[in-house]
Design brief:
2 copies of one chain form a homodimer.
Chain A: E1 4-13, H1 15-18, H2 26-35, E2 40-47, H3 51-62, E3 65-71, H4 82-90, E4 94-96, H5 98-110, E5 124-126, E6 130-132, E7 141-145, E8 151-155, H6 159-176, E9 183-192, H7 196-203, E10 214-220, E11 223-232, H8 235-250, E12 257-259, H9 265-276, E13 280-284, H10 290-295, E14 307-311, H11 314-321, H12 325-331, H13 336-350, E15 354-360, E16 375-382, E17 391-398, H14 404-425
Parallel strand pairs in A: 1-2, 1-3, 3-8, 13-14, 13-15
Antiparallel strand pairs in A: 4-5, 6-7, 7-8, 9-11, 9-12, 10-11, 15-16, 16-17
Helix pairs in contact in A: 3-4, 9-14
C-alpha cells in the first residue's frame, strides 16, 4: 500500500489517554481544521507514552497517509518519549536543536525562572528536522519526513498549545503546501432557537457532500452554527464564495441570527443587552436561576441587570412578584395568566425596560394529562416607550419529556432568545 | 508479533469522529473500565465508516492484543458497515441471527412501531459469532474470534448504549474470563471543596502505581472522586479490601465527604436539603443565579426552596435584601459586612431555616489592589432553633484570577458546600 498525499493520519500520545482519564480532543480538532484545507483525516491511533508503540503507530500511518500529525509526549520528564519514538520511525538519531534551546530558555526567562536540565530534552529533534516554534508552552514541536515520504508534524499535547501552534505555524505552512494548488476560505453564521431539522429542511439543497462551498452544521448548547468552506483559484474568490453562501443561509432565518460565531449563548445575549443598553429583569420558576446564571456569564452585564427573582413556591410568586392569588387558584402556576403576571411583576419591581418570565413543568414528576412534563409558559413584558401601560405577550411551548436537565436548558435558551428579540426591537 | 492475552485494543468507528464533530468517548470509557479488570488498553484506532479501514484496523490490533473492542457503525443505514468490516477481518461470511431479529422486533413493538426492512441489517453477524444483547437501543452487538486468536467484542456506538451493554453483558463475561484468575472489586468516595493537591498530600502514600488496592482520583465539576480497585483470590476479599481503603481516605476529610458517587454537585446538595427537610434561600451577586440553578437541578427541591434573589446592583441589595446603605457606602458590596447583611436579608425575607449569600469580583474587570479579581465573600445565616437571633458567619476566599467562568463556578461550589454543611449540622 502506498501513501495518499491528501490523506492525513493522527497519532495521539499519552498514558493519560490510555487510562481513560479524558478523551482525546486533539484528533477531532485536527480533523475539523484539515477539512478546511480539503484534506481528510483517515485514521487516528492513540497510544501511551511508549517509544516502540509511538514508532509503530507512525509507521502504520506512513503506509497510508501523506501527512501525519503526532501530538503529546513532548514534556521534560523521562516518560515523555515522543521525540524518541518519531526518531525511531524516521530512522534518524536525535540531536539538540540550538534554536529550540534558545526558545525554551526564553520561556523560562519571561516566567522569571531558570531553565532546568530536564528541559534540554525538549530541544531534541531527529537530525534534519525543522523546528516548529511553540509560543504557548515550553515544548517546541518539529517537522520531519518519513522514509516512505509522509510529512510528520509533531505538536505539543495540551489542546490550548496545540491549537495555538496550529494557528500560528501549521496553518500558514498548510496554505503553502496544498496538494491541489487551490485556495480555501471559510465563513460561518450562528443561530438561536433553530432546530437542526428545520434548518436542514430550508437549507436542504446546499447540504451536499462534495459541494463547493461545502456546508456543515453543528449544534451545541442551544446554538446552531453553519459553516461554509469554499475552494477557488484565488483567496479572494474563495472568501467571496464562502461569504455569499453563508449570507444566503442567514437570510433564511434573519430573526434567529446571532452573529458570525457564538460560543456561549448566555454571555452573547448578556453582551448584546449591555451593548444595546436595554435593562432587563427575570422571573424564573422551573429554570430556577439558569437564565440569570447564563446572562451573568457576560462581564459588565451588571450595567443593565439590577435584579431578578427565582420564585419556586406559589407564595413567593405572590409576595415577590405580586401574582394575584386568584390567578394561581384558577389557572395554576404553569399557565398563561401566571406567566404574564410574573413578567409584569418582574418589570414593575425592578424598574427594568424588559422582563421575561418562565414557568413550566421540567419533570420528572408533576405532569398531568392537561399539563404534561415539558410544558413551559413564557411571559414577555416591555415598558411602553411612550409611557403607556406595559406590553405583555405570552408563549406556550411543549417540549418532549426528555429529562429535567434538557427541558430546563431548552426553556432557558428560549427565554434568552425572547430577551434578545425584545432588545433588538427597541 | 504475537498477541498478548492481557493487552486490549479498541477500534472506534464513525465518520462523525473523523469529521471532528465530537471526541471519541467510548475508548476512554473502555480504558477506565478495563483497568478495573487489571487489563490495559494498549492502542486505540479511530476510523470512518469504511469496510476496508475497519477490517485493517482490527487486523492491526489482532497482532498485538488478546481482546479487541469495536464500537460504532451498527446502525440500520447503508453507511453502517462495521459488521462487514469485522466479518472481513475474521474471514467469515455474514448471516442473519434469528435471536437478533427477535430482539430488534421486540424493540420496535415496545415502541409501538413496526420494524423496517433496513433494520434486518442490524441482525447480521459473522458465522459463528455470539450475539451480545442490547437493552438500550436497536443495534445488538456480537462476540467473535479473530484467526490470530484475539476475542473481538463489537458494541453499539452511542455512549449510553455502549455503557449499558458493558454493565449488563460485558462485565459478567470479563469476570469469568480473567487472564489471571483473580477477582477484582471497586469502591469509591466523592468529596466537595477538596483540591487534588490537598488530597494527594494527605493520601500520598496510597497513590502508587501497581499498589493493591490501586487508588485513582478524578476531579470534575467541583467533585473529587477517589476510586480503589482491589485484587484478591475471592470476590469477598477484594470487596473488603477496596472498601477499607476508601473508608480510610474518607476518614481524612469527613466534613467534605458527599457520598459514594456524585455526578452533579448541585442536584446532590439539593436532594440532601430536601431529604433532611431544611428550607433554604440564597442571595447571589457575582454568581448571578448559578447556585440556584445548580440546586434546582434536583427534582422536588421546591419543597424546601421557596425563593431566592439575584441582586447585582447595590440598589437591589438594599431594596430586595435590606442591606443598609451605610454598609454599602463604608465597606462596598464585596465585603464581610455586605455578605452578612445579604444572608440575613435572604433568611428574613424568605422565612427559610438557612440562607447563603455570595458577593465577589469574578472579573475580568472590577478588581483593585485591595479587592482583586477572585475575591469572594460568603454570608452564612441560620435560624436559631431556640428562637433567638439568627446565627451569621462570613467567609472570605481568594481564588486565582483564572477567568470569570472559573471564579463563578468555584464560588458557586463553595456556596453549595456551605449549604450542605449547614443542613447536616441541623
Amino acid at each position: 500500500m502506498s501513501s495518499e498525499p491528501a490523506a492525513v493520519g493522527v497519532v495521539s500520545v499519552g498514558d493519560e489517554l490510555m487510562a481513560g482519564a479524558h478523551p482525546d480532543l486533539n484528533a477531532p480538532y485536527l480533523a475539523s481544521r484539515m477539512a478546511e484545507f480539503g484534506r481528510r483525516v483517515e485514521r487516528v491511533i492513540v497510544v501511551g507514552d511508549d517509544e516502540e508503540h509511538i514508532a509503530s503507530a507512525v509507521d502504520a500511518l506512513a503506509a497510508r497517509c501523506g501527512l501525519i500529525f503526532v501530538s503529546g509526549g513532548l514534556g521534560p520528564t523521562l516518560d515523555d518519549v515522543t521525540r524518541h519514538g518519531v526518531a525511531r520511525a524516521v530512522q534518524r538519531p536525535l540531536e539538540e536543536c540550538p534554536a529550540a534551546i534558545e526558545e525554551i530558555e526564553g520561556w523560562f526567562t519571561r516566567a522569571g525562572r531558570v531553565m532546568l536540565e530536564n528541559n534540554r530534552r525538549q530541544a531534541l529533534m531527529p537530525v534534519g528536522a525543522t523546528r516548529v516554534p511553540n509560543g504557548f508552552g515550553t515544548a517546541p514541536g518539529f517537522r520531519c519526513e518519513h522514509p516512505q515520504g509522509a510529512v510528520i508534524l509533531v505538536l505539543p499535547g495540551p489542546p490550548r498549545e496545540l491549537q495555538g501552534v496550529f494557528d500560528a505555524e501549521v496553518e500558514p505552512w498548510l496554505a503553502e503546501h496544498r496538494p491541489d494548488e487551490l485556495h480555501r476560505a471559510r465563513a460561518s453564521a450562528a443561530f438561536v432557537d433553530l432546530p437542526e431539522s428545520t434548518f436542514a429542511e430550508a437549507a436542504g439543497a446546499w447540504l451536499e457532500r462534495g459541494a463547493n462551498p461545502l456546508v456543515g452544521v453543528t449544534v451545541k448548547d442551544g446554538i446552531l452554527t453553519t459553516r461554509a468552506v469554499a475552494t477557488a483559484a484565488t483567496p479572494g474568490q474563495a472568501a467571496a464564495m464562502a461569504r455569499e453562501r453563508v449570507d444566503s443561509l442567514r437570510a433564511l432565518f434573519p430573526e434567529r441570527y446571532l452573529a458570525e460565531r457564538v460560543d456561549d449563548l448566555g454571555a452573547f445575549v448578556g453582551g448584546e443587552l449591555q451593548r444595546l443598553g436595554v435593562s432587563f429583569s427575570l422571573a424564573e420558576s422551573c429554570t430556577g436561576g439558569l437564565v440569570a446564571a447564563s446572562l451573568t456569564g457576560a462581564p459588565g452585564v451588571s450595567e443593565v441587570f439590577a435584579r431578578s427573582f427565582v420564585t419556586y413556591a406559589n407564595e413567593a410568586k405572590r409576595s415577590e412578584l405580586g401574582v394575584p392569588s386568584k390567578v394561581l387558584e384558577e389557572h395554576g402556576a404553569v399557565s398563561e395568566a401566571c406567566a404574564r403576571a410574573m413578567a409584569l411583576g418582574a418589570l414593575e419591581r425592578s424598574g427594568a425596560e424588559v422582563a421575561v418570565s418562565v414557568t413550566g413543568i421540567a419533570g420528572p414528576g408533576g405532569g398531568t394529562d392537561e399539563k404534561p412534563v415539558g410544558l413551559v409558559w413564557f411571559g414577555i413584558a416591555s415598558r411602553d416607550p411612550g409611557g403607556g401601560a406595559p406590553l405583555i405577550e405570552a408563549e406556550e411551548r411543549r417540549w418532549p419529556p426528555l429529562g429535567r436537565a434538557r427541558v430546563r436548558r431548552w426553556a432557558a435558551n428560549r427565554a434568552l432568545a425572547h430577551l434578545l428579540r425584545l432588545a433588538r426591537a427597541r
